[in-house]
Design a protein that fits this description.
Low-confidence stretches of chain B: 59-64
Oligomer: heterodimer
Number of helices of chain A: 15
Structural class of chain A: mainly beta
Strand content of chain B: 5-15%
Helix content of chain A: 10-25%
Strand order of the largest sheet of chain B: 3-5
Mean pLDDT of chain B: 90
Number of strands of chain B: 14
Strand content of chain A: over 45%
């Protein structure tokens, strides 16, 4: 499988330069491609180096001949023996060299094919001509195939002892003309190089043999790269093709199900706001558990990245691999590496898709008649007056008065948007050996499920690598993204789920009706809009200088700028009954963040016989600022004016704040390996943060890890089926820096205003408690892992066990309300996450059929080890010995069935209980139900998360099925959709299955309008939210090569893809298990069907 | 080679950047530092306003849970909504926080009922009092500032004992959260503290009405609170004395401008004339707005009708000749219930047929036209219409929708009429029914357009008690005091349990305003339960019980 990946990397021009090592690996055949082309290539584009001092012209010619396939032709005697040349060229074009010689000798040059004719010139004006003839027919052709007999594209075929050669095409075919007695040298990364004498043959085919030694997949790690086989920590990786092949709307959701221990939940499908939450190996802290995200080594956000720009993603899961990032790494580190250019003619590729989205789940609400009946029933159950009279009911049932007694399907009205998405990615890369570039343009558009919601994303990236000299190169990464999100104002998504069907949307004259001064459809269509314009600029300049053999110094300067503009324009319009919807207003805000990073590190890489060492030492500092300003005016004269100046001075309001934080760090790493069998690594990071008081701000974070490649041992060599076996172990300490700013500084808050004498009186007050002794949260973890590969990589297996203990967690331990201020943060908590992770993979090719299967699963157990005072105030429990935020509530044991039961059975004091209400278990048998009878119901943190990848191929067709799932996780559906009528909500079909004297075993209790007792968290409404979903299903077809060749296109793939098509869950028929807690208020998760095309020119 | 050297130099510079720790020292730029505060008079002014005020919840006021988040000294919510937990009214939205307290379903986890328990205001007051001496300012002014803040603290403890009974009495700021696990101090101790404080500070506060004081606490406010608490505690003589001293301050007079003075005095445009006002919550648009109009106004004006009056309060108003409606001689006609009644009924409650915003208010017709095509948003079953058919008129005013949640109207906490009633009731209970007592009641009744007290009928302590209680209920309706009255008169079992009634269904002629009722069955808003063992107290928040091992729950929860 890996070979294929690498091949694809090379071929699809989605070339992944995975750091410098990858560059070296691929260098060989890039050169090969070039020398083969020398015969046709202009001398302007043939580069070589030349360093001579006092050399004769003849010497210079022979030096050039030695480096190229050219020979010089001239009459003896035209060269002045006494003319001596001094020249120093570094990677200069041959043409320029000749011009230089021409200028200094008066000779003129004319290149004809592989010969350079030398003549006496007329003047000292440089004269270099070129004449390239069409080559004669080839003599030798053939096909190079891989171990499975499949054509191997990109392999180099070179004449031995020369630089003449060519690379194979997409089918592994090559054609070359060479002398009869020549010997072919055929090589490809990952395979054993073969030498074959031509011996007069005109066809030479070769099936190449795998070379396990050469197979060195490289992964990106902190401040560098590492051979995958030499990894001692737990690093999961994902390649670009996993992202490119799916129409994901953002990068975070692309990570879902790909790596064990990386739990991704996408709880919303709202255009532009559908970023997923990512947890690595459980929830590591009581605070912000988001992992650290770095793009090309600089801390950034993954929201704005064009998925098509990503070359690879590494997730550093254990402390050993993440320790180099110290205080920000406690929740894991995600390293995103973007694509870079490669030398060669410009390669252009295009990837585009169009599709349509629909909600994954859609609750089924009662129609007007059933709604009215059930509502009356609820009112009567509570001793109230029915809302709908018999006459009303009749009108609703017959539909005789659709104006006043309509039957409105609000969800149908809501989902009137097209939900269309389309995406276009254009990518151009190329360059010379000295200077390589990648330019990419991306455009993505998504329409909402409702009208007037639109999301545009524009991405531009330019990555450049330039060699200034042999020892010094610089690079530039710039990326710009612009997101433009437009959506209606207010809770337009909530209210269609609440507004009763007995309320009409519009009157016959087209004006809107309203309910509680609200009509979500009017909000969508007329209410104005909420515009977000987010600009994200990343620029990074780096220089690498080689100070001595193996010793390099890299310096980086990077800025990350975000400008987040929001504008909320509220329009005013008349409801059908003549009342005004509200006043016009405009609220503009801008949030600017700036992060400036400086980094420098020295890297030393050296082998001494069988010892190999790598040392790294560096420093970095970051300065982050964030400013926010908001302004508002009301009463703009009409709905068309949308600028602040148009508003009335009376409603002017402004607000603003700013925060600043800084981090300074020193870090180092030492790697040692002996015979590539025994691997050791240690990291050390020292971080100082402005978020802590000066006596507490520095933290030291070490890690050590070791690996043993047992398969390399002599005693394992007999096991031919075992291609790799490695055991690894690591230990390390990390910190968590993601706390608020200024938490340790006692502050007095401004803006606690009052009014005296009818005017504003500015006031201040202490509203926060402070703790000056705050210090780092630390996370100590160890990891033990094993990697297997069988049958030359055909079966792969990895397993990891980890144990993470987070201590000194900053948490506001519940304090008595008598303290009067919110509880100050204290380093009081600790929690443990432990778990195991497995990855299983197998792949094979059998003639035209190929498959590639992989399965990963992670089991995690979270447990609060220390929490000073249990917090049992809500439905989420925070207490020692339980999972963090576990659902906590009553055990529901059916309904009160008789009046005797209501009278005699234990119940909550004061609760208005009647027959048909939920009955809770009296856990402590004290005769009453109160807070003491609550029990832990289940964890809100998934215990299991898994992913399944099935890739099948037959000839030009490929089919992939990708499923993700979660197990051992609970969710609580908001009571406003779990129960009917709560807080003005409506009712769903399932609510008809309710308790009545005739249906004592119904699913729902007796219908109420409001009855808090039933809504309490209990085993009735906290349910297992496990699910398995087919996240992506994709069918692709590669157009046949002969056709493409006639079009001069190297690849066209068309595909049909479906996201979130099927979900298996016991959680709910109506709401998505991926967003259990927010089911009621959130924009729903979406499913989509897309069709796409990918073209490589 | 040269480039190499440049790079080396650059790299060394980068690597060896200044190691001074200044880089890591950053401070907030939008908040003051405690270390440099409490120095000048301006600091004292800021802290004083901060003691009264609250953090803006946002520059753009959001009504939801407004009360819960506010830490201003008092909130209109606590005034206007509080009668909904009594027989005076009904709260139709559970999230407004008083519904469960009204129907008996309140429980310790009911977050909406936690507001009064909070000590966030106490912290502000204690911090102020502990630090004000660090400020260099005129001593007399400082004395007044201190007295104002002590008044606010006394007021807060007054509310705490009324709602929770025994509460921890904290008079110094608590440095370590672990020291906050305090048990409950006996109510009597807290009451004694409040009365002692009020007695001590009164002298440092100026004699001013609310117009003159601009919203600051005054001697009148201190004594009014003292009289109120003494009345509630049955300290009749003290209550009489303190109420009398407020009545005798020559800065106060009943607001008697115009026919509808009783209604007009609550309107923002009359604030500068209202010398009846002893102390109010001073609202100002945008910065510290009132959200009450949103809750009070009927649906057609964009309001939510959150505050509904009950049939019970409607029935409490006498007829114009000073008789109760159950008196057969009163001339009360059940089919014309709003005619011939105490004018304060029309000035307190918007009912079927009321002239309101240029139309006849109509909560009882489902349609506004005979053909039954135009739905009536004020119909009592409709979205944001009053469930009882009665909206509250006191404090209501037709305003642009834009101002519903951005109101400038002050909410009165103490006014002279309450002192007159306090004096009268304390005197009656003390059995000192002098002319002064009748006079106090007469002043209130005549201002409202009612006849003076019929000395012939109300000639005994019992009859006078009955009168003063009814007068109090009517005069102070929807001003947040009814719950305390039910509690101290211990009439909960009579007035709370059972169905809570609203209007009778019927029809309003939209051109003449004539109201006809169709049948006798009144609208029932809810069924209420009463738990005497709770002693009219709210539950201690469950979060407090969980966090504080020394906290004991009130009985009945």
């Amino acid at each position: 499988m890996k070979f294929k990946l690498i091949r694809q990397l090379v071929l699809m021009s989605q070339f992944a330069i995975v750091g410098f090592l990858a560059q070296c690996l691929t260098f060989t055949f890039l050169m090969a491609g070039e020398v083969g082309a020398q015969q046709k290539q202009s001398i302007e584009h043939i580069y070589l180096s030349l360093e001579v001092e006092g050399a004769s012209i003849e010497d210079v010619f022979s030096k050039i001949e030695g480096q190229t396939a050219f020979s010089f032709a001239y009459k003896k005697g035209i060269l002045h023996k006494k003319t001596l040349l001094d020249a120093s060229f570094k990677e200069e074009s041959l043409a320029n060299m000749l011009r230089f010689i021409s200028q200094n000798t008066g000779l003129s040059f004319k290149r004809v094919d592989e010969t350079i004719q030398v003549n006496k010139g007329e003047s000292f004006e440089p004269l270099v001509e070129e004449l390239v003839s069409v080559l004669a027919d080839v003599d030798i052709s053939g096909k190079i195939t891989d171990e499975n007999g499949e054509g191997l594209p990109g392999a180099s075929v070179i004449e031995k002892g020369t630089t003449n050669g060519i690379t194979t095409d997409l089918n592994g075919q090559y054609k070359i003309n060479l002398p009869e007695n020549a010997t072919l040298v055929i090589s490809f990364v990952g395979y054993k190089t073969a030498e074959i004498p031509i011996a007069g043959r005109s066809t030479i085919d070769l099936q190449m043999e795998l070379d396990a030694e050469q197979l060195e997949e490289v992964v990106v790690i902190g401040y560098g790269t590492q051979k995958k086989v030499n990894l001692t920590g737990a690093v999961a990786t994902m390649d670009s093709d996993k992202i490119e092949s799916r129409p994901v709307t953002n990068v975070s959701s692309a990570l879902q199900g790909q790596m064990p221990g990386v739990t991704v939940v996408q709880s919303s499908g709202e255009p532009g706001r559908d970023g997923a939450s990512i947890r690595i190996r459980g929830v590591g802290t009581m605070n912000n558990s988001n992992p650290m995200v770095l793009v090309d080594g600089i801390e950034s956000s993954m929201d704005d990245i064009n998925p098509g720009d990503i070359a690879s993603i590494s997730v550093l899961k254990d402390a050993a691999s993440a320790a180099i990032y110290g205080t920000r790494a406690a929740n894991g580190v995600i390293l995103i590496t973007t694509k870079r250019g490669e030398a060669g003619a410009p390669k252009v590729s295009y990837n585009g898709y169009v599709g349509v989205q629909r909600p994954t789940f859609k609750p089924e609400f009662l129609g007007a008649y059933e709604y009215a009946l059930l509502r009356n029933e609820g009112l009567v159950n509570e001793g109230g007056t029915p809302q709908f009279s018999d006459a009303d009911l009749e009108k609703i049932r017959t539909g005789s008065d659709p104006v006043n007694f309509p039957d409105t399907d609000w969800l149908d009205l809501l989902y009137q948007g097209s939900g269309a998405i389309h995406s276009h990615d254009l990518n151009v890369s190329g360059g010379t050996e000295k200077s390589k570039y990648l330019l990419s343009l991306g455009y993505f558009n998504q329409k909402g499920l409702n009208k007037n919601t639109n999301f545009d994303r524009y991405n531009l990236r330019f990555n450049l690598d330039t060699k200034i000299s042999d020892a010094f190169s610089i690079g530039l990464n710039t990326a710009m993204s612009y997101r433009d999100i437009s959506r209606p104002n207010g809770d337009y998504f909530v209210y269609p789920h609440r507004t009763p069907p007995t309320i009409s949307n519009k009157f016959p004259d087209g004006s809107y009706n309203h309910y509680l001064n609200n009509n979500p459809i009017a909000l969508i269509e007329e209410g104005g809009r909420h515009q977000t314009n987010a600009t994200h600029l990343i620029s990074q300049l780096f220089g690498i200088v080689t100070l001595a053999e193996g010793l390099t110094l890299k310096g980086v300067v990077a800025t990350d700028l975000n400008f987040d503009d929001q504008s909320k324009h509220t329009k005013s319009f008349l409801w059908g009954d003549g009342t005004l919807s509200g006043n016009t207003s405009l609220e503009n805000s801008i949030r600017r963040t700036r992060n400036i990073t400086l980094q420098a590190w020295l890297n030393y890489d050296k082998s001494f016989g069988e010892h190999q060492i790598n040392l790294l030492a560096g420093t970095s500092q970051e300065a982050y600022t964030e400013d926010y300003d908001q302004l508002r005016r009301i009463n703009l004269p009409n709905n068309e004016l949308t600028e602040i100046n148009a508003g009335s001075n009376e409603g002017v309001a402004t607000e603003g704040f700013g925060v600043e934080s800084r981090l300074r760090s020193f870090f180092g790493r030492a790697n040692y390996s002996f015979k590539d069998k025994y691997l050791f690594e240690t990291n050390l990071r020292m971080d100082g943060s402005s978020k802590l008081a000066s006596n507490n701000r520095w933290g030291v974070f070490p890690s050590v890890s070791a690996g043993w490649r047992m398969s390399e041992e002599a005693f394992m060599q007999d096991l031919s089926w075992l291609s790799n076996l490695k055991v690894r172990a690591s230990w390390g300490k990390l910190g968590n820096h993601r706390i608020g700013d200024y938490e340790f500084i006692p502050k007095i808050a401004i803006g606690n205003n009052y009014s005296f004498f009818g005017a504003v009186a500015d006031g201040v007050a202490q509203v926060e408690a402070t703790n000056e002794d705050l210090t780092w949260e630390t996370n100590t973890s160890y990891d033990i892992g094993v990697d297997f590969e069988l049958f030359e990589g055909r079966f792969q297996f990895s397993a990891d066990y980890y144990n993470r203990l987070t201590e000194d967690i900053l948490t506001p331990v519940p304090v008595s309300g008598i303290f009067g201020l919110p509880a100050p943060l204290v380093n009081a908590g600790s929690m443990r996450n432990k778990g195991i992770e497995f990855v299983l993979g197998t792949s094979a090719v059998n003639g035209d059929f190929r498959y590639d299967l992989s399965f990963n699963i992670g089991f995690n157990k979270n447990n609060v080890v220390k929490y000073d005072k249990p917090d049992k105030s809500g439905e989420r429990l925070k207490e020692e010995g339980s999972p963090w935020n576990a659902y906590y509530g009553y055990e529901s044991i059916g309904f009160f069935q008789t009046d005797e039961e209501v009278l005699n059975d234990p119940k909550v004091a004061g609760a208005p209980i009647q027959k048909g209400d939920l009955k809770f278990k009296d856990q402590n048998d004290d005769g009453v139900i109160n807070g003491d009878d609550r029990v832990v119901i289940g964890s809100s943190i998934p215990g299991t998360s898994y992913g399944l990848n099935i890739n099948l191929g037959y000839k030009n067709f490929d089919l992939s099925i990708f499923g993700v799932g979660m197990g051992d996780v609970y969710g609580l559906l908001n009571d406003q959709v779990e129960f009917p009528f709560v807080n003005g909500a409506k009712a769903q079909t399932r609510h008809l299955d309710r308790w009545t004297p005739e249906t004592p075993n119904a699913r729902y209790p007796i219908t109420h309008i409001d009855q808090w007792h039933n809504y309490e968290a209990s085993t009735f409404n906290v349910r297992n939210a496990s699910y398995f979903r087919i996240k992506n299903l994709q069918l692709g077809y590669n157009l046949p090569l002969p056709l493409l060749e006639s079009w001069n296109i190297s690849k066209i793939r068309v595909y049909l893809s479906g996201e979130n098509l099927l979900t298996f869950t016991g959680w709910s028929d109506d709401f998505d298990p991926e967003s259990p807690d927010w089911a009621w208020g959130n924009y729903t998760p979406v499913k989509s069907i897309t069709g796409g095309i990918r073209v490589n020119f | 080679m040269k480039t190499k050297i440049y790079i080396l130099i650059a790299a060394i510079t980068v690597l060896g950047w200044s190691c001074s720790d200044d880089f890591l020292d950053v401070n907030p730029k939008d908040q003051l530092s405690d270390a440099t505060f409490w120095q000048t008079q301006e600091d004292a002014d800021l802290a004083l306003a901060g003691a009264y005020g609250t953090a803006k919840l946002s520059a753009f006021p959001n009504f939801y849970r407004w009360n819960e988040r506010s830490n201003a000294w008092e909130s209109g919510w606590n005034i206007n909504f509080m009668d909904l937990m009594t027989d005076n009214g009904y709260s139709q939205y559970i999230w407004d926080g008083v519904k469960t307290a009204g129907n008996g379903q309140v429980n310790p986890s009911d977050r909406n009922m936690h507001n009064f328990f909070k000590y966030n205001r106490i912290v502000k007051y204690n911090t102020f009092l502990e630090n004000i001496d660090r400020v260099d300012m005129e001593e007399s002014k400082k004395a007044r500032y201190k007295a104002e803040v002590r008044f606010l603290r006394a007021y807060d403890y007054f509310k705490k004992v009324m709602w929770y009974g025994d509460v921890p009495l904290v008079t110094n700021s608590i440095e370590d959260p672990r020291d906050a696990n305090l048990g409950r101090d006996p109510k009597q101790e807290v009451v004694d503290f409040i009365l002692k404080e009020l007695g001590e500070i009164a002298g440092d506060l100026p004699v001013q009405n609310a117009v003159q004081s601009g919203g600051h606490a005054t001697r009148g406010a201190a004594l009014a609170l003292k009289a109120r608490l003494e009345l509630y505690e049955g300290m009749w003589s003290d209550a009489m004395a303190d109420a009398k001293s407020v009545m005798d301050m020559d800065v106060y007079e009943l607001y008697e401008v115009g026919e509808t003075a009783y209604y007009d005095m609550f309107l923002p445009e009359n604030e500068s004339l209202n010398k009846e006002n002893i102390m109010a919550i001073e609202h100002i648009q945008n910065e510290f707005p009132s959200v009450m109009w949103q809750h009070l106004l009927p649906a057609q004006e964009g309001g939510w009708s959150s505050i509904n009056a009950s049939q019970s309060i409607v029935d409490a108003y006498e007829t114009l000749d000073g008789k109760t409606i159950d008196d057969p001689t009163s001339g009360y006609d059940a089919d014309k219930p709003f005619e011939n009644r105490d004018p304060r009924l029309d000035m307190t409650i918007i009912h079927a047929g009321s002239m309101w915003n240029g139309r006849y208010f109509n909560p009882i017709s489902q349609f506004l036209d005979e053909a039954e095509t135009v739905a009536n948003p004020d119909y009592f079953t409709q979205g944001s219409a009053s469930r009882s058919g009665y909206n509250v008129y006191k404090y209501s005013k037709v305003v642009p929708v834009a101002d519903l949640r951005n109101g400038e109207g002050n909410i009165i906490v103490f006014r002279l009429a309450e002192m007159l009633l306090t004096f009268a009731e304390a005197a009656i209970e003390n059995n000192q029914i002098t002319g002064e007592v009748y006079d106090a009641l007469d002043r209130i009744r005549t201002r409202a357009g009612m006849p003076v007290v019929d000395r012939g009928v109300y000639n005994s302590q019992d009859k006078m008690r009955e009168l003063v209680r009814r007068e109090r209920r009517v005069e102070l309706a929807f001003e947040g005091l009814r719950h305390y009255d039910i509690k101290r008169w211990d009439i909960g079992a009579e007035v709370i349990p059972g169905p809570l009634y609203g209007t009778r269904p019927g029809h309003v002629d939209m051109t003449t305003g004539e109201v006809t009722f169709t049948d006798g069955d009144r609208v029932v808003m809810e069924e209420r339960a009463f738990f005497p063992q709770r002693k009219y107290l709210l539950p201690i928040p469950q979060s407090e019980i969980d966090a504080n091992p020394n906290m004991v729950q009130n009985e009945g929860y």
